[in-house]
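Hey, can you fold this?
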Amino acid sequence: MIQKYQDDFMHEECWILSFAGGFQRAKVYQGEVSEAKRAQFREDLRTYVEKDILPAYQQKVSEEQHLKNIESVAAYAIQNFASILNNEKLNIGIAQKLLNPQLKYLWCRGKVITPPHFPVDRIIQEKLKMNPIINWTSMQTLAEYSQVIEHAKRVAAKMPDCCIDGEVSLALWELISFQRK
């Protein structure tokens, strides 16, 4: 009984953190959008991700499928909420910054298997020594996002502790590398 309340609490907290991380520094909404419309957008987007995206991560998801899932999050937002979104879209950088942290939290809680990627932001690009750093809030395409991922693969391949079942894990690399101090 207590475990259910603990799980529900952690589930809510992880979504709060995911939305804060994805939306806090990004100009997601057009001008004066009411809090009610923002809340409806977040609720519907969360429901979409929980029902249509996250169940796949109970099994290994290929990188190709993960990229499609990021695109799908952005497409869902555009199809259903373009009228409240800045420039009538949710860009790839923001979509990945919503999905990837949620996957990280679920993975760390033992709810999904290791995700293919990690949350891409300025801090992690600095750890990767990216040059130039790509502004994640402005990433429009999967190609921009993939530049960071490909660079991370080269860095992670040099760290022997970053393997799971004989494969380099970007999620594990980020977990090891990103420790709050």
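Oh, and this one too while you're at it.
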Amino acid sequence: DALPILNKLFSTVNSAGVQLEQTDIVKANLLNLIDEKVKYGKIWEACENMNNFFERNVRLSFPSTDWNIVDFKKYYEFDGSIFRYESTNKNGINSDDTLIIIEDVNMNDISDYQHPTKNILGEKDRKSEEIYCRSIINFGQLLIHTYRLHLYIEGKEDFEGTFHVNRLIEIFNSLEARKDPNEIKRFFQLLWKVRYLFDKYVIKWITDIDNKTESLELVNFNKNDKGYYSRTKYAKSNSSMLQSVLYFTGDYLRQYWLTTYLGYLLKNHSDSDATNEIHLIKLEEFDNQFSLNDKLTDKDLSYLLLDKEATVDKTINIRTYLELNKGTAFKHYWFQKLEYILWKNWDSTINTQEYNNYRITSRNSVEHIYPQNPENQIQHPQIEDEYLHSFGNLVLLSVAQNSEYSNKSFRVKKSMFRDRRETYDTLKSYYIFQNDNWNKIEIIKHLETMISKIEEHYDAK
């Protein structure tokens, strides 16, 4: 009985020295209910390593495939006649006989979940110019997103309870309990599709080998004359910027927007590029619907929006909210969303290096441009809270940037902003520091300008 081990992950080691996690137990339980265990086990295996590109995983899991005749970009659906594997292990024993079943696990050797470490397969076979990636979610999270899509496609309700990888076994209990081999196979086939779409259309952390930094990118890949695939980063795009906003402002452990967006792509990807304008428009639409409703949970909303006919009530008025004087209590989402809107609608005549280098990054500290406790009280006499804590007087920065600015005067902050040569702190800051002075009048003007830009974005949908 798996119930005593819910919300735990396995770190027991089986006789082969393989560390077991909840994903392994779910895999074993599902394979136990179907035939063609090796084939479906290989499909799972190919999807499993999230810190490697899907095509590389497939190459390792299906080594007998003739890659010279395969254009992987066309294999959104698994084709068993194309992707080949050896069905016996080195000892000549059929791999089906070596599958782990839940009864084999020592229930006393269970430990809490550990985040998977970066594990790049086939390292020695890589070319030096190859791109390295790190996923924005782990495999357990991908399984849950896929299972939600599976439930929707099968005409069933979303699973009950919280979306959390520590509940993985419990979440999949219902699929196991139905004991329908064909349904389980459909889930495995869907997992392949979802992993394919995730790799093609969703941002991932890409390492810059030269300066040892990571950035969120959409990646394109093309086949070379040796049957291998080279990858290139797309130029910064509205698509990658909006996905960055969603990643940094969403629930880190869940990323609910992925359920909705991947569900849309399952039906509508049309094999188009990741930066396709039609896909961007749809993602903007989903994002707007999420941001204007505070009555439904993000979990409920993400499942509801899988239905293209669904209507979502707008329970948040942007202007009413942003005209409050909430100070540090403003949701960080609205700062990051504004950055996206400003980036997308940037005046092309302002072609600065700082703008070209700009990225949406993790920011968690709200800074008051007109200082709360000014160092120079002659330049900055105390002003009323409605101006001091207005959205018009605030920017969202990194903690380090915020501490640098501290309670310095507007002119000092402006000078510091202009001295940064690499990129702008924020695009909102750029607009603020176009002013020569900063007082109640400028704060109100800036607030109105920013709210109008946000409203224009929403009204365009």
